Automatic annotation (TrEMBL):
Single GO biological process annotation from the record: alpha-amino acid metabolic process
Lineage summary: Bacteria, Bacillati, Bacillota, Bacilli, Lactobacillales
Protein name: D-serine dehydratase
Organism whose genome encodes this protein: Lacticaseibacillus zeae DSM 20178 = KCTC 3804
Length: 127
């Protein structure tokens, strides 16, 4: 979004780059990726790991689909991107989240991720 491509890292904007979403844990884009994405990228969003875990848990509970935390991160971007484009409010908009990876995770790791999402949801519901 900054058009700085490989000349900027997440640490430059106050983020630490540490995340449970391992598939997204790249702190600095490559020169090639930055140039290719210039015409493809609509918006960006940052998120807390707990947000990703909540969506992971909701996806299991509603669709019986398990994904890894980095795949569930795609759901965290919907509301912020819609806020960036208020002209889309109230329109029939389809959101597609590319979500993969849950079947390759060990069962113990899937259970732990699910439980972290449950705890996070419980905290929100008790507020």
């Amino acid at each position: 979004m900054t058009k700085l491509n490989e000349k900027i890292a997440v640490q430059d904007i106050g983020l630490d780059g540490l995340t449970a979403a391992g598939g997204l844990a790249v702190s600095r884009p490559s020169r090639l990726a930055g140039k290719v994405m210039q015409t493809l990228l609509l918006g960006t969003a940052t998120f807390e790991d707990n947000d990703s875990y909540r969506y992971l848990t909701k996806l299991v509970d509603t669709e019986d689909v398990m994904v890894e935390p980095s795949a569930a991160a795609g759901f965290t971007a919907i509301a912020p991107i819609m806020a960036q484009f208020p002209t889309l409010a109230g329109k029939d908009v389809t959101h597609i989240v590319w979500a993969t990876g849950g079947d390759m995770m060990p069962e113990s790791e899937r259970q732990l991720d699910y439980e972290l999402g449950q705890k996070s949801l419980t905290k929100i519901n008790n507020r």
